[in-house]
Here is the input.
Amino acid sequence: MQPAHPPAIIRLYRVTRRYGVQKALDAVSLEIPANAFVFVTGPSGAGKTTLLKLLYLGLKANEGQVIVDGMNLARMDRHRIPILRRRLGIIFQDYKLIATRSVYENVALVLEAAGTPHRAIAAGVNSVLRTVGMEKRRDALPPSLSGGEQQRVAVARALVGEPRILLADEPTGSLDSVSAGVVMDLITRFHQRGGTVLVATHDQHLIRSVPARVIHLEGGKLVEILPCSDPGPLDR
Amino acid sequence: MHLHLRKALQDMRNNRFLNAITVATIALAVIIVGAFSLFVINAGDLLNTWRQGLRLMVYLEDGLPPDRRPRIEDTLRRMPEIERLQFISKEAAMALLRSQMSRHAALLDGLTQNPLPEAYEVEVRHGVERQMESLAERIEQIAGVEEVAYGKQWIKRFGGLVELLGIIGYALTGLFSGAAVFFVANTIRLILYGRREELEIMRLVGASERFIRTPFYIQALLQGFMGGLVGIGTLYLVYRFTAGDMAATLGGFGFSFRFLPWTAVAGAVLSAMVVGWLGCFASLKQFIASS
Ligand SMILES: Nc1ncnc2c1ncn2[C@@H]1O[C@H](COP(=O)(O)OP(=O)(O)OP(=O)(O)O)[C@@H](O)[C@H]1O
Ligand SMILES: [Mg+2]
Here is the structure.
């Protein structure tokens, strides 16, 4: 190890995850240093979402080791899962906003669950809603919002707890280019403040828009890691 | 805590109908069990009143020479169970009968001779009411005593009935508590089922199981509390409107009705809360196991 090399905040060693007999991830090993900006790409079904799920223990690996921010997930106790998840900000492919709770409540939930004092919650939520430009819709219910607005609320929720790592699954998937620009801008700023970012996407356009390393999956296998985003030999 | 309470109240408001049904079920259980306790407590009181006022009538043999009375009296006085005794002559007995028959006293005028026996009215000491039978037997052994009378059959039967009702009361308490637990469990299960997606999202953003469950427990405890209050309140109203009539019926025994003591009221409300807690516990356990 070179001493100049920043320590890995995420480390996978020969990780395999199966659904039945099919391997969604096949002996994947990789290291992501703290404060890295990483794209996980590959065709549909390549295992991008599966990889992210392993990182927040939405799934457990069948084989291999997953270490996130110093925590060995294979050996993690069930009741410690919330501790892991509070260090992560997650933007889900399908947003996962609570339909019966207002925008404000959806975002506040993260801080409430973390035991943040009442006053600080209001301040934190209002500030992050302002950042994503959703402060005027704070009392709206998610189903009444457009896709882009819901996505921004999802970003706000992922950022409000000031996580160490941001996991984003197709964060611009259903957005027009303007909304996508807004969301990527928020993510980039999180990265600039020192956060580690993992974005799963098959949008090559998006990948080219930010200088970042790219992890390419195909059929559950790690095909290559590019140090910096550059069209290179990637298809499409 | 304040946050959990707010969530619990919000939940109860959102599920007003289910919530009302649960509270009503718990209240009903409290009413039925409470009514039984009320009955058993008052019947027990009544029984004690009767036992305490219990007197033995020691009838003497007809035509017993008056000079044999002091010996009998002496024997009676030496019995530790006896508090006081009073001689009732034939004439006194007749006078008493006349006064008791009041308007029908004229019937007694037709008698040519007084058929009533001489007797001692014996008052027993407090606390020996339950040993009346053996006491009566010993008194009957005394020479010159014809018969000893007291309302033993009556009291025995009534005591047995009160005991039986007490047992039925326990069984009903168990049955209705079980039913109430079941109802609370079902309410919470329905709410959980309707919100499983929300609960899953809460877990994904870092909420602990305790954070997720606490509002449900608060809700169940509140339901129990409200059910307990409504149940006891209803019982009290019913008691207020009917106790007067019943007391009038039984008034002749110098007996007054009373409501459940406050310890029992507090116990009922607490039990209702325990019922709520248990229901919540059961449904959460099952829900977590199935998710
Ligand atoms: N719950 C599941 N049960 C069975 N198979 C699954 C499940 N989830 C994913 N898979 C399979 O695992 C493989 C990887 O899925 P994954 O969702 O990780 O792909 P992805 O790269 O995120 O795809 P996309 O770009 O479409 O989101 C796919 O072949 C998928 O069919
Ligand atoms: Mg996916």
